[in-house]
């Protein structure tokens, strides 16, 4: 780091703007707690940025759920259809198919999107001879949804790369059922709609009964947690509910949409936001998740190249193009052994920047580390906020998403920062949750079938 400061003072100065010290982390937690409280309470919910949606999932799995279920997973870069067989607590078979979603489907009319989903489901069922099996299906739909029941969710806004028209304000379960009915070639029972965070929590809880949080750091970012039903004012009859707990989908990506995070945002964050398809929305998510990390790094590099500080004399137009620096490059660059820059050189080469200047590559890595460290710090603030809100002293946190899964240091960075904030007061474990969107959807479908 000293070397960066001496050799690349300009880069150092930029990266300093991304630093968040413990005081600021505590301030973020404080503000997030306030926003959550607003989301949960009936009076303030309509103007809250963090909606804290009721999921209608009130039971965690017992580990005794069995049977065959279908799951649909829409929300990341791909769409998936899965057949989940819960055979025993230790044996879960998942057979799945991934389908790429074209930009025209992601951004076109909603009917086209749902016809595409139904088409994939139908092809999958035909391949597996399940057309008339009438299996229960869980729909993992990873966007902010206002639910009024386990199988009724209205899309509030698209996030990530989606902007399919005519879906916002509609019940997406109905859109799915209609699309299936239009085809008329298969029998399935759509029994539940869920967020990927809920699926992740359920999937983790199948093995770890003390799992109380599900978090995603992937294309987008979000978390859900187990709240006391008596605090869930948005649930009709919450005071007299028989069931003590409710999973709450925080939709923390929207934290900061009202300006409360401006004190930590940089020029680069604002630049990335301005050119996104949903400006001024999902502010916290844009500081954390995979859809934006690469773009933040790209903006910094381009500025330093334009100032002739980095990769001097190397001409590259490639990097000036938006989206060219993918978040997986950060993962690759940070996977280099200390003092080695093999991946870094390869990544830059693939972007048309041929260089063996190790100092430059060291600076590049420093920029990547800056962005991923800040992401992990912010995610750690979110987790600590939820842990303090629940006031639990021992828990597991189920986590999924490409950034957490593939970044070589993300897990360690999360732990370091959580340890700093929790200071030994809570025993916690961060667990990679295996396929929450598939297995979690099946578990919810199974839990629904149990009632
Ligand atoms: C969505 C959430 C989702 C998260 C992770 C966000 O953009 O709003 O519903 O859980 O991405 O996929």
From TrEMBL:
Keyword list (alphabetical) reads: ATP-binding, Glycolysis, Kinase, Nucleotide-binding, Transferase
Q: Name one GO biological process term.
A: glucose metabolic process
Q: Which residues form the Hexokinase N-terminal domain?
A: 12-206
Does the record's keyword annotation contain Transcription? no
Give the pathway annotation: Carbohydrate metabolism; hexose metabolism; Carbohydrate degradation; glycolysis; D-glyceraldehyde 3-phosphate and glycerone phosphate from D-glucose: step 1/4
InterPro entries assigned to the protein according to its UniProt record, in alphabetical order? ATPase_NBD, Hexokinase, Hexokinase_BS, Hexokinase_C, Hexokinase_N
Q: What top-level branch of life does the organism fall under?
A: Eukaryota
Which GO molecular-function terms appear in the entry?
ATP binding; D-glucose binding; fructokinase activity; glucokinase activity
What GO terms fall under cellular component here?
Answer: cytosol; mitochondrion
Q: What is its EC number?
A: 2.7.1.-
Return the broad EC class. Answer: transferase
Name the chemical reaction catalysed here. Answer: a D-hexose + ATP = a D-hexose 6-phosphate + ADP + H(+); D-mannose + ATP = D-mannose 6-phosphate + ADP + H(+); D-fructose + ATP = D-fructose 6-phosphate + ADP + H(+); D-glucose + ATP = D-glucose 6-phosphate + ADP + H(+)
Domain annotation Hexokinase C-terminal: ranges: 212-447
Gene3D superfamilies, per database record: 3.30.420.40, 3.40.367.20
Q: What's this protein's function?
A: Catalyzes the phosphorylation of various hexoses to hexose 6-phosphate.
- Annotated family: Belongs to the hexokinase family.
The identity of this protein, by name, is: Phosphotransferase
> What taxonomic classification does the UniProt entry list for its organism?
Eukaryota, Metazoa, Ecdysozoa, Arthropoda, Hexapoda
């Amino acid at each position: 780091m000293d070397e960066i400061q001496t050799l690349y003072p300009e880069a150092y100065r930029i990266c300093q703007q991304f630093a968040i010290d413990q005081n600021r982390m505590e301030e973020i937690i404080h503000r997030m707690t306030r926003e959550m409280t607003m989301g949960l309470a009936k009076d303030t919910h309509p103007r809250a940025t963090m909606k804290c949606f009721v999921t209608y999932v009130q039971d965690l799995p017992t580990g005794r759920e069995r049977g065959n279920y279908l799951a649909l997973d829409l929300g990341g870069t791909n769409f998936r259809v899965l057949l989940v067989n819960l055979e025993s607590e230790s044996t879960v078979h998942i057979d799945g198919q991934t389908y790429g979603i074209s930009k025209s489907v992601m951004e076109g009319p909603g009917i086209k999107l749902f016809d595409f989903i139904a088409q994939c489901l139908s092809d999958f069922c035909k391949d597996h001879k399940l057309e008339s099996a009438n299996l229960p299906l869980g729909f993992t739909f990873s966007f902010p949804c206002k639910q009024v029941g386990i199988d009724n969710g209205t899309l509030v806004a698209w996030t990530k790369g989606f902007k399919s028209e005519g879906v916002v304000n509609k019940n997406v379960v109905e859109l799915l059922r209609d699309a299936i009915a239009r085809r008329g070639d298969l029998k399935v029972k759509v029994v539940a709609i869920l967020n990927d965070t809920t699926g992740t929590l359920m999937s983790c809880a199948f093995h770890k009964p003390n799992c109380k949080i599900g978090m995603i750091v992937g294309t987008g970012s979000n978390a859900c947690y187990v709240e006391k039903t008596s605090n869930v004012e948005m649930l009709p009859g919450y005071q007299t509910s028989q069931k003590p707990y409710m999973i709450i989908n925080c939709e923390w990506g929207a934290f900061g949409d009202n300006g409360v995070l401006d004190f930590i945002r940089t020029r680069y964050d604002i630049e990335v936001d301005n050119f996104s398809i949903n400006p001024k929305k999902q502010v916290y998510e844009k500081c954390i998740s995979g859809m934006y990390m690469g773009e933040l790094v790209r903006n910094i590099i381009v500025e330093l190249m334009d100032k002739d500080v980095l990769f001097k004399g190397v001409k590259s137009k490639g990097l000036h193009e938006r989206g060219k620096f993918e978040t997986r490059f950060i993962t690759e660059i940070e996977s280099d052994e200390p003092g080695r820059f093999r991946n870094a050189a390869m990544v830059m080469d693939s972007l048309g920047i041929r260089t063996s200047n190790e100092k430059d590559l060291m600076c590049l890595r420093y920029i990547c580390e800056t962005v991923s460290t800040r992401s992990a710090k912010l995610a750690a603030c979110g987790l600590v906020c939820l842990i303090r809100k629940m006031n639990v002293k021992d828990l597991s946190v189920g986590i999924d998403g490409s950034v957490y899964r593939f970044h070589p240091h993300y897990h360690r960075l999360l732990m370091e920062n959580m340890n700093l904030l929790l200071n030994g007061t809570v025993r916690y474990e961060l667990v990679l949750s295996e396929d929450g969107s598939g297995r979690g959807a099946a578990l919810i479908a199974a839990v629904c079938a149990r009632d």
